[in-house]
# Entry
Amino acid sequence: MTDSTNTAAHAPVFRPGLLDGQVALVTGGGTGIGLGISELLAELGAHVVIASRKPEHLDAALAGITSRGHKASIVPLDVRDPERVKAVVNDIAEAHGRIDLLVNNAAGNFYSPSATLSPNAWKAVVEIDLYGTFYCSQAVYPIMATQGGGRIVSTSMTLHYRGWPLMAHATAAKAGVDALTKTLAVEWAPERIRVNAIAPGPIPTEGVRKAFTPPAASGVPDVFAAAEEKMAEYARKGIPLGRWGSPRDIANMVAFLASPAGDWITGGIFVIDGGEWLAKAQP
Ligand code: NAP
# Structure
């Protein structure tokens, strides 16, 4: 098996039908990492409900998954609206009788100097990343508690493990997601709700490549530089395992946590990054 490309991560590693009968809600599941998660969960037999704002993201994801014979549905949702979140979650529970897995993946991001970050920009990112994660988790709680358990996997990051300039909004929000994960894991364990987080390293999705272009002369590395040779150089020098990650690398961890293998795992924050942040932490 080679590990020098994404091929190994793309080959199926879970048994077919592993998640048969499960119902999963994936926020922001129509693009990038969320789409990779939605596709894998559906491939393994779950019915995946994808929730986000833009119809073009939802429609394309639904068409892709169902054209391969897997089960999915879509619902428009802005995770910043707690009443709408509750309504969507209750509709899913009514339609399917249960919700086994919530993947909090929706997020917004962009580079901005903290000194000039507007209150609205700060609010937008913190509300999507942190408040949205809380609203969705709180909404699924009564359903999972009543059905005898469930799994919540929230999407964090690694940039807040050190200082990361120009990203105060997202790093603060994701640090909050980590704290929320640990607190809910303990608080909701009696109801057998396992609460974990995943912390992806750099995955060159279209979303981050648009959002992560640091202002010139900011000193922040342009890790998602459009030029392929620059990306290859970063992978070689900045990522110990020598390659960029793919949505499937991240999705595999979600499938593991959703499977019976995740039965005794709660409160964990799983870094999936080819060793990138540890290498950055070296002097
Ligand atoms: P992406 O493709 O831009 O994904 C973000 C998703 O969130 C989109 O599908 C978007 O869909 C949805 N979304 C945004 N605002 C929303 C809202 N208010 N309500 C509901 N949905 C909303 O980026 P990505 O790279 O796949 O990132 C996915 C997750 O991984 C994020 O949590 C991100 O912070 C995390 N992450 C990514 C990386 C990376 O390198 N890619 C690294 C660390 C962590 P709509 O526009 O349709 O709403």
